[in-house]
Design goal:
By secondary structure, the protein is α/β, with parallel strands linked by helices. The protein contains twelve helices and eight strands. Helices cover about 45% and strands about 15% of the residues. α1 (about 15-30) runs parallel beside α2, α1 packs parallel to α12 (about 235-245) and α7 (about 135-150) runs parallel beside α9. Phosphoenolpyruvate binds near residues 165 and 232. Involved in the gluconeogenesis. Catalyzes stereospecifically the conversion of dihydroxyacetone phosphate (DHAP) to D-glyceraldehyde-3-phosphate (G3P). InterPro entries: Aldolase_TIM, TIM_sf, TrioseP_Isoase_bac/euk, Triosephosphate_isomerase, Triosephosphate_isomerase_AS.
């Protein structure tokens, strides 16, 4: 049985004050049955690792380099993240696909680096509003999933987490209905199962896009939704923990 995972993507938000006020209650919360993951910006990772130590809360980064080491000014290697106590890394987020023009090939290269460093990649996929309106949701999402999945060994595949994040739902207040999200999650799992049935049954598939305490339980109750990737609501400890309790 897959465990639920509630992951917070802080994006480019935060401060040392927020780090402390958020991670103290999160690291002390009792009685959650899901896994928790927090992904603050790079400059806060070391302090976050310290605040979370022995709490059981996982620490993630929001990106990593597509190369292991060398003359790549401004980049952060997956190995460096692993050395800091990071266990997960968000890759292919729609904001990076859009603002940094990251394509499927680059996302795959980053996934390979993350895996080589022992990190679990949280690979984000999702269609834009235009693509949804053109009836291209399945095509776009499966292309993004398969661009990564088909290039990995079975063992590597089992390390992945996918987050289905319809771009039109991110930060917009619009959420896919549980049925809409389940339909896409089920398509993703079926596509993965065609490649490797055992791993497909194990891989956590998260939903992201305006998840809040009020809508989390109905989304997470769907059979192929194994938790959420949370943006805005992860910046508030009580909201984030309420989502955790809904999982
Ligand atoms: C995200 O950016 O990963 C996200 C899901 O954001 P929000 O929850 O704010 O829509």
């Amino acid at each position: 049985m897959r465990q639920k995972l509630v992951a917070g993507n802080w994006k480019m938000n935060g401060s040392f004050d927020l780090l402390k006020s958020l991670l103290e209650p999160v690291s002390q919360e009792k009685g959650l049955s899901c896994q928790l993951l927090v992904c603050p910006p790079f400059p806060y990772l070391a302090a976050a690792a310290d605040l979370l130590k022995s709490s059981g809360v996982f620490l993630g980064a929001q990106d990593c380099a597509a190369t292991p080491v060398g003359a790549y000014t401004g980049e952060v290697a997956a190995e460096m993240l692993a050395e800091m106590g990071v266990s997960h890394v968000i890759l292919g987020h729609s904001e990076r696909r859009h603002y940094q023009a990251e394509g499927d090939a680059l996302v795959l290269a980053k996934v390979k680096q993350a895996l080589a460093a022992g990190l679990k990649p949280v690979v984000c996929v999702g269609e834009t509003l235009e693509e949804k309106q053109a009836g291209q949701t399945a095509e776009v999402v499966l292309r993004q999933v398969q661009a990564v999945a088909t290039q990995l060994s079975s063992e590597q595949l089992g390390q992945l987490i996918f987050a289905y994040e319809p771009v039109w739902a991110i930060g917009s207040g619009l959420t896919a209905t549980p049925d809409q999200a389940q339909e896409v999650h089920s398509l993703i799992r079926k596509a993965l199962a065609e490649q490797d049935q055992q791993q497909a049954a194990r891989i956590q598939l998260l939903y992201g896009g305006s998840v809040k305490a009020e809508n989390a339980a109905s989304l997470f109750a769907m059979p192929d939704i194994d938790g959420g990737l949370i943006g805005g609501a992860s910046l508030n400890a009580s909201q984030f923990l309420a989502i955790g309790h809904a999982a």
